[in-house]
Design a protein that fits this description.
490 residues, alpha+beta, six-stranded antiparallel β-sheet, 12 helices, 6 strands, 59% helix, rod-shaped
């Protein structure tokens, strides 16, 4: 739990989630700390980290103790004295490269007979030693020894400053840890992009909704003004109906915009993990981050630098490729013949334990040496199958890497084109907005002097307000395009 809290603090610092940041930065913070996909990826990374941290336990030798005795029983009687008493301790250690060492000290007491003393036990103490070695260890494989450039950094590099990993089994765990880290980065990356997308849509709908409300209010005044002119005989019923038709049209847009805003709010709420978005600006009484209707009045954060040095999806695929090579190396090692050499060596005669002294007897010394070659691994796993499976897997990952790089490159070009078009539209919108503002100011002066009617004033206000809202909506779109392009650089 402590490591998880440290991770969250680091993420918060990396993504500039300050308490006094913009509204979007606060939502980013909430999303990273509460999003279920990010939490699941962080949990997997902690599991992989623990597995790597405790890998040294696999190098602890296994120890086992055994003891046995045998008795003789015939039809006449049951012999109380055991025929044989044996005990042994087995120490076994599996070392890197398919090398195994076994040491087994043992004591065997065998029942015998003596003409003078009757029953005696012969005491045999020995130490058995055996070693076995795969004939295709990783350190003899060309695919393991031959590395270059980026591969070497992935194979030999370390992600958190411990010793370099050269053993395939340990390296496989380290790659698993890095894979989980890449999954976490990708989960954060995807979460932030989705949250930002829905935030901008929610923000634009909020601005649009407020604009439509003001437009509806202005059209209601406009309808009243036309009706007054109609009563005084200065306008026709067609003018009134035209104003009402526009009013009804904007009222329909008002309902549609409300539904659209609620939909984006639900999507944003799901990504962030919030219970509700319908609250006042800032923070609620329960300390939870909430979003208000006037969210479009808040500033958007600066574009700044990209969040990741390299796209997490590409990093993940490269790590999968390296893990496939590591698994291929381990598979070749386990499918090679195993050479074994063993022997039993006697212990020099000395004072025996109390049981031997109590029963009496001498000791014998036996030597034995064994040599073996096990070919069964060759039939359990075919080398050609391993090679073809490895080549197919690597080719698939390389294809996916090229596809991902091409996708990011095309998306970057796509957003560059959108940015260029959006900037041109903003220039035109700004010019139109300026003209509408000048017309509105001139109409207000004429209205004060009695040079125009209230209808003319309301029409000028409606036209200016619509263009003003469109301009700021387009500004939000430009910021989003630049932010998305920034995340596809490199």
């Amino acid at each position: 739990m402590k490591k998880f809290l440290i991770f969250l603090i680091v993420v918060v610092q990396v993504f500039l989630f300050a308490e006094d940041g913009t509204e979007l930065e606060k939502i980013w913070q909430k999303a990273v700390t509460c999003n279920s996909d990010v939490q699941a990826a962080a949990c997997n990374k902690r599991i992989a980290e623990n597995a790597l941290a405790y890998f040294w336990q696999k190098r602890i030798p296994s120890v086992s103790f055994s003891a046995s005795s045998s008795f003789l029983q015939n039809e006449e009687e049951f012999v109380k004295e055991p025929q044989k008493i044996a005990s042994s301790v087995l120490l076994q250690e599996a070392l890197p490269g398919g090398f195994t060492v076994c040491i087994e000290p043992s004591v065997v007491l065998s029942k015998g007979a003596d003409e003078n003393s009757g029953i005696v036990y012969s005491d045999v103490e020995s130490i058995g030693v055996s070693v076995s070695q795969s004939l295709n260890p990783y350190w003899l494989q060309k695919s393991w020894m031959k590395k270059s450039g980026n591969e070497k950094s992935l194979w030999r590099g370390n992600c958190y400053g411990e010793k370099k990993k050269s053993e395939p089994e340990e390296l496989s765990l380290e790659l698993e840890y890095k894979l989980c880290g890449a999954e976490l980065d990708e989960a954060v990356f995807t979460c932030l992009e989705n949250v930002t997308d829905y935030f901008i849509r929610y923000r634009q709908c909020s601005r649009k909704l407020d604009s439509i409300k003001k437009t509806v209010d202005l059209y209601r005044e406009l309808v009243e003004a036309w009706e007054e002119l109609l009563c005084s005989g200065k306008s026709s019923e067609a003018d009134v109906y035209a104003a009402k038709e526009n009013l009804y049209s904007y009222e329909e847009d008002l309902y549609e915009c409300r539904f659209e805003k609620e939909n984006y709010g639900i999507q944003l709420q799901r990504l962030i993990g919030m219970e509700s978005l319908q609250a006042v600006d800032g923070r609620g009484n329960d300390g939870k981050l909430v979003i208000g209707d006037a969210i479009y009045l808040s500033e958007l954060p600066e574009i700044g630098e990209r969040r990741f040095v390299e796209n997490p999806g590409i990093v993940y695929l490269r790590l999968l490729k390296e893990r496939a090579k590591c698994e291929y190396t381990i598979g070749k090692q386990n499918s090679g013949p195993v050479l074994s050499l063993g022997g039993t060596f006697p212990v020099h005669e000395k004072e025996r334990d109390y049981l031997s002294k109590f029963l009496g007897g001498g000791s014998t010394k036996n030597w034995s040496v064994s040599l073996g070659l096990d070919f069964s691994p060759l039939f359990k796993m075919n080398q050609n199958y391993l090679r073809k499976n490895y080549e197919t897997t690597v080719n698939e990952y390389e294809r996916r890497i090229l596809f991902e790089e091409a996708r990011l490159r095309n998306e970057r070009i796509y957003y560059e084109e959108l940015i260029a078009a959006c900037k041109k539209q903003l220039e035109m919108m700004n010019a139109v907005r300026g003209n509408k503002k000048e017309i509105l100011e001139a109409t207000e002066l004429l209205y004060e002097r009695g040079g125009c009617s209230r209808v003319d004033l309301l029409n000028a206000r409606i036209n200016f307000w619509i263009k003003e809202n469109d301009y700021y909506v387009q500004q939000d779109s430009l910021w989003f395009y630049e932010w998305m392009k920034m995340n596809r650089e490199g």
